[in-house]
């Protein structure tokens, strides 16, 4: 009986691990206004969200008051590495943009637009 329970638990864990989205993980942003961040991307309900996990400037790691704040939210999985319908916050300008993302291996192309004004960054996966 104990062997059966152990096997069932292992099956549940392996099936659960199969549902992880390839975008899950930590991503390094490009430098914006002299600083960059590591963003922890993970599911939030049936959407994808990203939270500022660490912050850096030219002298190294800093303890920004933005740590722990949500940077990306409401992002929907569209398939084949495409994500859309979300929002992204630019801390340096305190602006929120409509956002989409495109995943290609360890590179994440992120864009956000307010009306005709769009900004783009390429993020890299942190190992």
TrEMBL record:
The keyword Glycoprotein belongs to this UniProt entry's keyword annotation: no
Signal peptide (from-to): 1-20
Keywords: Signal
Domain DUF2147: 25-125
Superkingdom per UniProt: Bacteria
Keyword Lipoprotein: no
Protein name: Imidazoleglycerol-phosphate dehydratase
Organism: Falsihalocynthiibacter arcticus
